[in-house]
Amino acid sequence: MNRPTRKIVIVGGGTAGWITACVVAAESLKRGDGAVEVVLIESPDIPIIGVGEGTWPSMRMTLQRIGLAEDELIRECSASFKQGTRFRAWSGLPGNSEYIHPFSLPLEYSDLNPAKYWLAHGSSTPFADLVTPQARVIELGLAPKQAGAPQYAFTVNYGYHFDAGAFAGLLHRHATGKLGVQYIAGNVESIESDANGDIAAVALDTGERVPGDLFVDCTGQKALLIGAHYGSPLASVKDVLFNDRAIAVQVPYAEPGDPIAPVTLSTAQPHGWIWDIGLNSRRGVGYVHSSAHADEETALEALKTYVAETSPGIDLAGLSYRTIPFEPGYRESFWIRNCVAVGLSAGFIEPLEASALVLIEQSAAIIGKQLPRDREIMDVVAGRFNDKMRYHWLRIVEFLKLHYAVSAREDSDYWKENRARETWPESLREKITLWQQQPPWHDDAPRLDELFPSASYQYVLYGMGFRPRYGATGEAQDERMRKRADEVFHGARMKAQQMARLLPETRELINAITNRAAA
């Protein structure tokens, strides 16, 4: 029977569940579709993993879409501003110890490929420093906007760092208090099926039976619906991305007024890399590594050494470390019949470049905007959803592997094996081969919904020290075009100088927002 979609049941809370609930409910309210009911079931016994503390700029649009004030996020989630990622010790080249991948595109990027001119004439200056003023803003530890700017407005593009547990709590209150989402606490004991194979209802340990028309699986790595019930297998990518463990720790600041880094810090290690995320009240630090290349004791000791070196004045004895194992991969099918997986149930790979939350946002936006009005339409939406998500996962795997593939590090088997061409996806092998004669540009990220624009490939490629086999020719040697490129680069320098004078430090902006939010 072609039944209408009247009730959406989200199984699982956390960031994935509550973002989905908020987005779907907000889109339903915009349509004036009062017949659509959104219910979220959350286990009271499962803690939030809480590692996903970094976002992309897309989170600003998501929060605006659901009607959540930015000041509220800053105040309640210990949030700060993220302008990109600073990579340390990744290249393995002497004199090239770090580089920045900023969130802002190079100036006039739509019709000027800056890499051509940088390679031909200006490669003595770090690539990001030459093409965008944001690199200088990051170097100075400045905020992405002035204190008087409207909420979500920006001078340079930004996302957030925040406490993931507090963020889920904020979304919970917003969803139930302002968007009409119904909340049920309980554990799923069984799943009931219709004769046609759809999920009819979930039965809880409270004795309650919750029927629905569309079920969203946000049950984390357990994947109770999409995996355990429907049997969608996990397509492993461990042969490409080796990391399968993370050890995380929360580190306090020595003083309440200590500077906050405006980027995620990523420091390469012999068997993985360490993230360092500055929140308002603390830092979130963790070592992502490969268990095939380092045992637990070795990884923990490396993380403790890093924390000690970067945290003067902190009592390290009181810190609590926790290990988070994961299987790097994604579901072969994300939407089966009337069940769709979002978040960890759909898949997970290492948090390099913070791709996990943006996939949650993308999934929730599709479900909310294209919510199937009836069962027949659902099959069409499901097919397109599966195609889109599969494409995104493949591009993420390719882009993350780029960071390892072009490294010159040879200090361990981990890096040597990561550099081996046979561990690269075929699409990446083709791109790197082509980039020996021409820099990345729009053809390398042709879709409007690309997660990583071609500029991101440039920031990583040239930040890592990659140089093409063949020198620049043609347009890069044209005097008129070279003059235009010089004008654009000069404009970036002038903007950087202006921003250096006008933008506050990151903590100064956060304090101003917190004070006005509390007033």
Task: Briefly characterize the structure.
With 519 residues, the protein is an alpha+beta fold. Helix content is 38%, strand content 19%.
> What is the topology, as strand order, of the major beta sheet?
5-4-14-15-16-13-17
- Mean pLDDT across every amino acid position: 94
- Please state roughly what percent of the residues sit in beta strands, choosing from under 5%, 5-15%, 15-25%, 25-35%, 35-45% or over 45%: 15-25%
Going by helix content, strand content and strand pairing, the class is: alpha+beta
Segments where pLDDT lies below 50 for 5+ residues? none
Total helical segments: 16
Apparent shape: globular
Rg is 23 Å
Could you tell me the number of beta strands? 21
User: How helical, in percent, are the residues?
Assistant: 25-40%
Give a short account of the largest sheet: 7 strands, mixed
Termini, distance in Å? 55 Å
Can you describe this structure?
The protein has 16 helices and 21 strands. By secondary structure, it is α+β, with helices and mostly antiparallel strands. The protein has a seven-stranded mixed β-sheet. Strands 7-2-1-11-20-19 form a six-stranded mixed β-sheet. Helix 1 (14-31) packs parallel to helix 7 (164-178). The chain is globular and about 70 Å long.
